[in-house]
Amino acid sequence: PEQIHAKVEIHRITPQTVQRLRTEAQAQSSIEQARLGVTTAVTDTPQYEYLVAPSDVLQVTVWNHPELNNPGGQITNETAGRTVAADGYFYYPYIGKVKAAGRTVGDIRDEMARRLSTYLTEPQVDVSVLKYRGRKAYVVGQVETPGPVPITDEPLFLTTLVTRAGGLRPEADLARVILNRNGVLHSLNLHALYYKGDMSQNPLLQEGDIVNVPQRTQDKVFVLGEVIKPHSTILPWERYSLADALGDAGGLDPVTSKASQVYVIRAADEARPQIWHLDASSPTALVLADGFELQPRDVVYVDAAGVTRWSRVIGQILPTATGLATGRRIFD
Questions:
Q1: Helices marked H in the chain
Q2: Cα torsion for 245, 246, 247, 249, to the nearest 10°?
Q3: Contact 276/301 with Cβ under 8 angstroms?
Q4: Which residues contact residue 264 at a Cβ distance below 8 angstroms, ignoring those fewer than 6 apart?
């Protein structure tokens, strides 16, 4: 026993330990709540204005001058608009090249009205973006439609990006979303945003941002031993207790299990592994099991009864013994 205690920490699941663990969880939740609303450099939201980029298509309208808007009636919906070239300029009759990249449509409109006034009397000019093709953010991983998402005149927040990508898949790890901005990785927690209202986790995205929504392969618990249906399952986002795990496994096997020997094996990053023992034969066992919250990578193990162990030993030895006896008769 002393050698075992030197390697692992062994605890009994009692009303006192369940209360202590609940208090620790509530303290951690309070720390998280106190952090809500605290912004960082990546989550600051300045006043947003869309800046035109190369490859964007602009719609320019000069009122009362159809010869400029649609000369000869040759422009259709498919060919309408003026594409901003790679150098950031587009061409317009009378005034020639107009710089568009890196400017707002309001700036472009004011310059065009000023330059056209040399040729027209008090020109009224309207400029808008017909097609947003110049600026994009990207989303990969556990969303329904991974790929590029255009940045438009509507601010592109993380939640907007996820919505435009068709939403999250069931396997998405909301708590470990990664934002790659200019080669610097930022960790974001969509679970805190969706379920706790932490708006600091909903940054305004920029051109070239890459959002990776990983899969929840690590957030599993394992139920093994003498249960009806041994299995592994991904932890739900809400609370998941030892009673939930045993219930999802169909309960303890009434024939082969030893109800007094239910264990939760929990690995630790630096400390010794922990083993939590529950005597499920106790009348209060279900209450205690419901109060014991499981964590990712926990292993729930239900030991076998002594008669079951003996039966299995006999089942393994008997075929060998029978084979030896048969062989002896042959040689005799």
A1: 2-7, 15-35, 66-69, 105-116, 158-164, 190-196, 242-248, 285-291, 306-331
A2: 90
A3: no
A4: 13, 242, 275, 276, 278, 292, 294, 298, 299, 300, 301
SS3 content of the chain, % helix, strand, coil (to 5): 30, 30, 40
Q: Please name each of the domains of the chain with its CATH number.
A: 2-23+218-309 (3.10.560.10), 57-130 (3.30.1950.10), 135-213 (3.10.560.10)
Beta bridge partners of 143: 168
Q: What is the C-alpha to C-alpha distance for residues 138 and 180, in angstroms, rounded to an integer?
A: 10
The phi-psi region of residue 73 (left if phi > 0; otherwise alpha if psi is between -120 and 50; otherwise beta) is left
pLDDT tens readout for residues 130-181: 999 999 999 999 999 999 999 999 999 999 999 999 999 988 999 889 999 9
How far apart are the two ends of the chain, measured CA to CA in Å? 49
pLDDT in tens, 214-245: 998 788 899 999 999 999 998 887 889 999 99
- What three-state secondary structure class fits 16? helix
**Closest residue by Cα to residue 112 from 130, 97, 101, 102:** 97
Q: Residue 38 burial by CB count (10 A; 0-12/13-18/19+): exposed, middle or buried?
A: exposed
| 168 bridge partner residues | 143
At 313 the three-state DSSP class reads helix
Beta carbons of 162 and 143 less than 8 angstroms apart: yes
